[in-house]
Design goal:
By secondary structure, the chain is an alpha+beta fold. It has a single domain, classed as Lipoprotein localisation LolA/LolB/LppX (outer membrane lipoprotein receptor (LolB), chain A, Clam). 12% of the residues lie in helices and 29% in strands. The protein is globular, with a radius of gyration of 21 Å. The protein starts with 9 loop residues before the first helix and ends with a helix.
Amino acid sequence: MMNNYLSRNLFVLALFTAGAMPSQAAISEQEAARLGGAELTPIGAERAANADGSIPEWTGGLQQMPAGYKVGERLVDPYADEKPLYTITAANYTQYEDKLSPGQVALLKRYPDTFKMPVYQTHRSALLPDKVYAEIKQGSTVTELVPGGNGLQNFVSTTPFPIPSAGVEVIWNHIVRYRTALGVKRRYTQIPVQANGNFSPVLFEEEVLFATRVPNNPYPNRLFVFLQRLLAPARVEGDVLLVHENIDQVKEPRSAWIYNAGQRRVRRAPNIAYDGPGTASDGLRTADDLDLFNGAPDRYTWELVGKKEMIIPYNSYKLRDGSLKYSDIVMAGHMNPEYLRYELHRTWVVEARLKDGERHIYARRTFYVDEDSWQIALVDHYDGRGELWKVKEAHPVVHYQVKIPWLSAEVLHDMLSGRYLIIGLDNEESGYQYDFEYQNGFDAFTPAALRRSGRR
């Protein structure tokens, strides 16, 4: 059922979906004043608890460092002593079906003997630095969609639409959500898992510089620059991907280049977008599947369905445990439920449908977006026949020492083949794999620099 929080937006939403409003204006100063007040959190989530208290009031997020945490070392699970409130299985899922996505139900049915969802007490742990809250309030009164929604005008820094009235605004909030003060460098694995459980990890190293946060940024339309290196196995070692992502993608679409270490050659990569194949993913994901959705939203119509309480992965610190091997986590069909954690949270529901005349392997996608972080939590993907095809879940944590929500892993399930893909685990890497103080110049993210970055 649609939440009362959307009542203010119903008329606007009706105009938008009817085509009478090509772009959504920034909100008024009066509306922006609600952010961080008694009703809304600084990023636009409902501050209050739900009716029965199963979703608590937001009180500022995870402010206190857990016992045993040391700066520069792996994150410590602040909820390690908690036990599940209940566990959802194929035998009892109908009791909770109104709070599950069709994709989650399909997973329970497909793996009735092994897949389960341990549900824990809800902690609204997401938070951002105070400086970012101020930027969100400022930006909400000036940032607009470009006509058609495929870009932003007057973009300030993050979360341009904290009080959204259209589905594409929710998706933009996800795309440009805050992830670092300037740049970040991280190392992680991508693990394609075969139906029988066999797997071979691929090791990545990524560097990202968020151009809008660079002082005196010389590229006003640049959102970020992104460099991705493949470190292992040997057959892909040394390959490098470079992406320039833009704010107004009507004015300037994404640009991408690939350095192939075997050929020692840099070439343009126009297929690193939409449903082009994802790097080293064994054909399991598309380019725009990474981070649950990225890139230009222009091939879909975006309907804002409303808000819904959903059981979603949350506070997934167990998956980051450095004592675990990948073989402890990977099972045939799905990750080991022993290391999963689900909680009840409010989500924005957005329905994406492929426009007439456009091409994509997914004809429809249903997104469930966490209200406290603007991170997409779940996606159900449908094929051209309208059949559920792939299911993706985000398993988030808060890097509490820097007040940044991120993911322990994102997992894409192919419901037809039984294969799945895990992105983000770093358990077998030594130490903490995120550098949130990373800084590098734009000259490190050019095609000329790409060949120097490659190595065998």
